Structure formats: C-alpha cells, structure tokens
C-alpha cells in the first residue's frame, strides 16, 4: 500500500511541533505591556478609573446603609447660618436671580416693543383694530431684536402666536399680545422679588417675608404713595393676611410663591397702580381689600370693638360686629374652631388681630371655597363633616329669634329648613356637606341665612332688592 511518503520507503514524515504561547517571547512582552495599562489609550484608562470610582461609591453607600439600619435617610439638614455651605448657597441664588432679572424687559424696552408693534401692524377695515399675521409677527420679532436685543425673542415664538384668537385671515390683535408680554414680565419680576425674600429658599413665604414684599411695592403703587408712615406696618399686616387666607388653606404659616403669583389677590393688589383720578370710585376702593380706605376701615372696626383696649376681642366684644346681627351660636363656634386658647392657660379665649382678619375675610368672601370652608367648620356643630336637619334647625333658631325681635312677621323654621334643602340639593338627601354647598353655587347665601339675620333678610327680600338695582339702569 502506498504510504504517501516522499522518499518512497513507506515511513511517515515527523510532524513539526508549535511551541506553547507562554514560551514565545513576543507574547510575554505583549502581555506585560498591556498589564501596565500604558497601551490602553486615554479613553480606556478613563473607563477603568470611572468603574473604580463608582465601585468605591457603591461600597461606601452600602457601608452607610448598614450602619444606618434599614430606614433610608429622607431629611437633609439645611446648612447652618454663616457656614460656607450657606454662603455658597446664597451667592448662587443671588447670581441666578440677577441673571434672570437681566433677561427681563424694562419699561423702556416695553415702550419700544409697543412702538414696533404699532408701526408694523395693519388696520382691520371692519373693526379698526390693529392686527398682524404671522409674517408681520416674524418681521416685528426681527425689528425688536435689533432695537431691544435678543431678550425679547422668547415672546415671538410660534407657540405664543397660536395662543391668541385669530380672525378669518389668520391675524391676531397686537393689544392682547402686548398685554400678555407685560403681564409675563410683571409676574416674572414678582417671582424674582419674592424669591429674594425667601430666606430658606424653599419656595414658600412666611408672614414677615410677605409683609416685606408688600412694603417694597408701596412706593410703586399710585394709590398708596400718600400712606402715613405710622400706618405702613399695620397696612402690610392686613394686606399679607389675605394672601395667607387664600394661599395657605392648611394654615401652615407659609404661602407657596407659585400659588401667590397665580392668585387673584396679587391681581387685586396690582390694581392699585391706577391713579386715583382715573375713574377709581370710592366704592371700588372700599371693595378692594388692599386699598388704603379698606385697610383703615378694618383697623377702625377692630379698635371700635376692642372696648377694653387690650389688643384682643372677647366673645362679648365680637357680638357687636355688624351691629350685632350675627347669632350667638355662630360667635361661640368661631371661638371654638378658629381662636386659640390664651398662652397663660385656662379656658379663656381672646381673638387677636390676625384671627379677626381671617374672620372678616371669611364673612366678606362667603362664596369662595376658602371662605365657605371657614364658615362650614362653624356650622358643623358636631364636627362630623356634614349638616343634618337638626343642625339646620339649631342654627336657624337664633336667626329666628333675632328676626322676631326686629319686628318682622312670624315664619316657620321648618319651611326655611326645607327651602335650604331645595337650594342645596345635596347628593345624600339626609345630610349637607361642604362639597354640596360649593357645588350648588348658593353656599354663601345659605351660610348667611344661618348665621346672620341681615343675611336672611336680604334673601327674603331678594326680589325687591333686585328690582331696586334694575330701576336706575332703566332710567
């Protein structure tokens, strides 16, 4: 048989052996070179270093978790006053707010924008209104950027253009757009000012911080420029209380800045920018809580009720509020629910000025959720979260007594109770909740009928009162 040998003798040629890799000099040198890390490159070295750091962090976190137990830490202590961390935090906050303030349009910028809008708009032939389409909008944006700077460009975005009502030609009026720019600038400036006063930077204002913000606004409000210096502190206290009544419903003693900015209270305060000569009537000033007339009225009212001049009101003194038309049981419930006991101990309670402001705000804003919540706690005699027919009968009994003492006609309490039930139309026919009062849109009227004989008289004579209001208009 042929063996395949080349020499023809039938013996196989010996196979050539390959030495092991470990014995090869170039392999050993390559492994040694890679092991030092010098040949990996900067990216690979950075990756290794990152893995090492993350591993150390993970091990440290595991160690701290084991030492602290199974409950993780959820509270981080704020830096101490005067510490380096506190100083760094305040400096960072100051620089951030300064940068945001520099990005705002000032009064001259707003005037220049209004001029640009009027010079580059078109007049609607039908209405005479000044309008602009999207091409005009983009052109005005370029002109404003040249004259004012890039800080106005954010107002000329396509999304902002789409926010406004357009006519059949796709045009928007320039006045609503300009008012939108002004309001945005005003709210942003207000937020910056409030954030500067927020000492602990938690997004909430405490009473003294809110009073400081209002004090800083007084020189810029036309209707408050002549306020007596001796009355400034009291005014700020009265004004700040309304913000906390509506923006701090849980009574935690701090109001969220975002909620303050979006509240009607700030808009009402800013109405004092108007000059008194510009058709601001005495009635409008009295209805505005922040007007000087209103603040003086409330202060005088408190001083008149405080017969013993001790700075607080007793139950007997508060009974003279509104010429004594409030019921005895309501006064008792106000002290039970909204007046704290005296610090000296005992069962005596006196209403301080802040509690009196809440009391007045609730009675003057009965139709609001905040005012109705305040009053419902007083109406809920047993704290059950709802009113029964027995509660309505008990509450109205005092109103009925004052009604008869005033020389009015006799009425049936059960009929009034049924009328209240028909007005509210509660979900549960056996009880009325605060939600039912809010949903029926007549909660303020119902509350007035149960706590104030004058409120019941106004409801009983509502048709005559409505006719008296309409007669001057017809003339």
UniProtKB/TrEMBL annotation:
Coiled-coil residues: none
Compartments it resides in: Cytoplasm
Any GO BP annotation: cortical cytoskeleton organization
InterPro entries: EF-hand-dom_pair (IPR011992), EF_Hand_1_Ca_BS (IPR018247), EF_hand_dom (IPR002048), PPP2R3C (IPR039865)
Alphabetized CDD domains for the sequence: PPP2R3C
Main location: cytoplasm
GO cellular component, one term: cytoplasm
Record carries keyword Calcium: yes
Protein name: Probable serine/threonine-protein phosphatase 2A regulatory subunit B'' subunit TON2
Organism: Momordica charantia
Lineage: Eukaryota, Viridiplantae, Streptophyta, Embryophyta, Tracheophyta
Underlying gene: LOC111009239
């Amino acid at each position: 048989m042929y063996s395949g040998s080349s020499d023809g003798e039938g013996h196989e040629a010996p196979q050539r052996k390959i030495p092991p890799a470990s014995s090869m000099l170039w392999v050993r040198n390559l492994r040694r070179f890679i092991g030092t890390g010098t040949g990996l490159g900067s990216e690979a070295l950075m990756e290794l270093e990152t893995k090492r750091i993350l591993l150390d962090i993970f091990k440290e976190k595991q160690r701290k978790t084991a030492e602290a137990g199974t409950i993780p830490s959820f509270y981080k202590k704020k830096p101490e006053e005067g510490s380096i961390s506190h100083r760094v935090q305040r400096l960072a906050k100051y620089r951030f707010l300064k940068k945001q303030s520099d990005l705002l349009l000032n009064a001259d910028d707003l005037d220049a924008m209004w001029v640009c809008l009027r010079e580059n708009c078109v007049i609607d032939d039908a209405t005479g209104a000044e309008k602009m389409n999207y091409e005009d909008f983009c052109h005005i944006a370029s002109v404003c950027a040249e004259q004012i700077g890039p800080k106005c460009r954010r107002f000329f975005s396509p999304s902002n253009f789409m926010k406004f009502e357009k006519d059949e030609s796709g045009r928007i009026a320039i006045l609503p757009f300009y008012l939108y720019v002004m309001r945005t600038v005003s709210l942003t400036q207000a937020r910056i000012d409030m954030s500067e006063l927020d000492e602990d930077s938690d997004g909430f204002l405490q009473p003294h911080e809110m009073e400081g913000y209002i004090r800083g606004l007084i020189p810029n409000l036309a209707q408050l420029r002549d306020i007596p210096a001796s009355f400034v502190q009291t005014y700020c206290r009265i004004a700040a209380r309304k913000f906390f009544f509506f923006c701090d419903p849980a009574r935690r003693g701090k109001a969220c800045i975002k909620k303050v900015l979006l509240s009607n209270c700030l808009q009402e305060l800013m109405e004092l920018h108007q000059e008194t000569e510009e058709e601001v009537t005495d009635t409008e000033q009295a209805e505005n809580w922040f007007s000087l007339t209103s603040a003086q009225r409330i202060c005088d009212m408190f001083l008149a009720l405080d017969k013993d001049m001790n700075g607080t009101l007793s139950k007997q003194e508060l009974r003279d509020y509104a010429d004594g038309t409030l019921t005895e049981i309501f006064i008792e419930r106000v002290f039970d629910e909204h007046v704290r006991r005296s610090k000296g101990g005992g069962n005596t309670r006196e209403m301080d000025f802040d509690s009196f402001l809440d009391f007045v705000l609730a009675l003057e804003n009965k139709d609001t959720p905040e005012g109705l919540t305040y009053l419902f706690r007083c109406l809920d005699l047993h704290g059950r979260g709802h009113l029964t027919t027995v509660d309505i009968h008990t509450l109205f009994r005092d109103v009925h007594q004052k009604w008869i003492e005033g020389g009015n006609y006799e009425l049936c309490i059960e009929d009034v109770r049924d009328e209240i039930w028909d007005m509210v139309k509660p979900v549960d026919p056996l009880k009325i909740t605060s939600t039912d009062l809010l949903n029926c849109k007549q909660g303020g009227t119902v509350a007035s009928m149960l706590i104030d004989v004058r409120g019941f008289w106004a409801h009983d004579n509502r048709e005559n009162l409505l006719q008296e209001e309409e007669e001057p208009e017809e003339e």
